[in-house]
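Re: the request from the purification team.
They wanted to know what the chain is likely to look like in 3D before they choose a buffer screen. I agreed to run a prediction and write the result into the notebook, where they can find it.
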Amino acid sequence: MIFAPRIQAILDRLQPDDRAEMERELIASRPAHIKRIQRNEQRDRAIRLHLASFGSGSRHAKASALAAELIRELATHGNTGSSDPKSVSLRNILALNGGRPIGRRQIENIATGARSKFAKISD
């Protein structure tokens, strides 16, 4: 996690245990909209990583396949008991999206980085 330079300098002077506690408190006290933006950035990274696992194919086909996989994973309530990387990735994406599936068009927008410039912040 990256903090403002002055905050980072203060944290750097703390003992490791105190620093870890202070970082947890700082992160927990962030405004809800900042947390939501950061969660969406994590979700977007997870989606791009999952799309990369499909190999070749059109962006449209990959996005459609991922949207279908997310709906299937949601339909099973994640109770497949599978710990394979693909299932774990799908459950992670769903968790980062508040347990809701994501449509093909939104997945394509995420893949191309065509999201609003106002929806991004730095860590």
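For the purification team: The chain has a mean pLDDT of 84.
Please add any questions underneath this entry.
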